[in-house]
Amino acid sequence: MTDDADVYYVISDLHIGGDEQLEEVEFLDELLEFLERLENTDENAELVINGDAFGLWEFTTVEGMEKFDELESSYPKLFEAFRRTGENITVTLLPGNHDHELAAYDAYVDRFAEYNVDLVQNESITRRVGDRTVHFEHGHQHDPNNRIEDWGNEHATPLGYYYNTLVTSRAGRLSDRGRYNWLKDVQAVTPTERMPVWLFSKYFYREMNPILRYALVPFLLLFNISVVLALLAGLDLAGIWSMPVDRTTAFLGQFGTAGTAVWFLLAINVVVTALLLLVAIPLYFIRRDFRRTIDRFGVFETALTVDAQGPYESAARETFEENPETAVFCYGHTHRPTVRELDGGVLVNTGTWLKRLHRRDGIIGLLPPVFYPTYQLGTVRIADEPEGISVEYRTVGKPSPATEELTLTERLFTVGREPELDIPERTVIDDAGGTPETTPADDVVDDVEPVGN
C-alpha cells in the first residue's frame, strides 16, 4: 500500500484498445489534458484507475504480454503522459474484467512500473482519507456474467469474455464497411438484450437507402392513426357504422387535389395496416406458445441483464458494517455514474469514458427507437477537507456527439429529450458519521437504465 494521499482522483472504464476500429480512442485528447493537470498539481494526490482501463478482451490477434506491446505502440502519447504524471503523484491501476489479464501476468507489473504506474493485482484496495478509509474495486465480481471465479488465472473466461471476443472484437473489424463507421459502438449498447433493436435502429437511420427510409417514415408515423381508420373502415364495410368514413371523405374533399392525395395515402396505410393486423393475430399466439415451450425446457433460465444497482448497494452496506471506518465505496463496471448517500457512507460509481447510448422510443407511430449518444467523461475527487471528507463528481469537457452522429431524422425525433445527468456536485461526510450533506448539481441529469458490462 502506498503512502496515503490527501486527495484521490478516480477514473475507470476507459476500455482503451482492441481490434482495428476499436483502436480509436475518441477521448484521447481529453485524457491527456486530464493527466497533464495532475502532472502539474501541487496537491498530495493519487490517481486511482479503477478497472477496465484497457480493452484486453477486445484483442483477438495477440496473446499475453504482446497485448502490452500493442498498447505501447498504439498510444505512445498516453504512456508518456503516465510517465510524467507518475513522477509527480502516485498512479495506481486496478484490473477490471476486460483487463483481468493484468492480474494474471506478473510481467505487467514491471512493464507498467517503467511508466510510473503502480499495477496492483488485487480485486480491491483501500486508501486512508483523513480518519476514514475509501474502498476501491472495479465491481465486476458482483456481476454473474463477468465475475472472475479464479482471480489471477489467465484462462478465466466468464460469459462476458466470449461476448467481447466474438461480438465486440468482430464489430471492430467490420465497422468501417458500413455507410458510417457505427458498428464499433456495439460496446456501448447496454443491456446486451438491446442489441437486436439497436442494430435495426442503425440500419433504419443509417444504412437503409434514404429514398426508402423517407418513403416509410410517413407510414410509420401514421401507423397509430391507420389502426383506428382500419377498424372504422371495417365497421363501414360491415354496414355497422359508416358515419366516420363518410365525414373524413367529405372533409378531405374540400381541399381538392391535396385532399385527394392525403385520402389515397391514408387508404394505402389502412390497407397495409389491416393486413399487418390480420397477420399479427396468429403470430401473437404462435409467439406466446413458443415462449411457453422455451420456458418449460428452461433454455434461458439466466437472464443476461443483471441488477446493476442492488448487488453494489449490498456490497457497500456489508463493507460499511464490517469496516465502520469506511466512508466511501467506489466502483465502476456498470458505466452508470452515481454519487449518493448510503447508510451514512457514500456509494460512488465513476461511470465510463466510452460513448453512452440512451434509448429514446418513438412517441407516436412505429418508428424505431433512437439511441442518443453522449460522452460523460467522469472523474471523482475524494479529499480530506476541514468540514469532512468531500466527494465531487466532475466531467472533463467534451461536447455530446449527437450533432455529428445522429441523422436529421434522429435529431428531430429527440428534440427536447436529450439525456442529462443527475449527480450532486459535492457530497461531504462528517467525521461524526452523520448523514452526508450534498450540493445539488445545477446543470447535469441522466436517464436511469439497467446496464452491465
UniProtKB/TrEMBL annotation:
One of its GO terms (molecular function) is metal ion binding. Keywords: Cell inner membrane, Cell membrane, Manganese, Membrane, Metal-binding, Transmembrane, Transmembrane helix. GO terms for cellular component: membrane. The chain crosses the membrane at residues 211-241, 261-286. Residues 9-185 form the Calcineurin-like phosphoesterase domain. Coiled coil: none annotated. Signal peptide: none annotated. Pfam families: Metallophos. InterPro entries: Calcineurin-like_PHP, LpxH-like, Metallo-depent_PP-like. It comes from the Archaea. Residues 443-453 have a biased composition (Acidic residues). Residues 423-453 are annotated as: Disordered. GO terms for biological process: lipid A biosynthetic process. PANTHER family: BLL8164 PROTEIN, UDP-2,3-DIACYLGLUCOSAMINE HYDROLASE-RELATED. This is UDP-2,3-diacylglucosamine pyrophosphatase LpxH. It comes from Halorubrum alkaliphilum. The lineage of its organism: Archaea, Methanobacteriati, Methanobacteriota, Stenosarchaea group, Halobacteria.
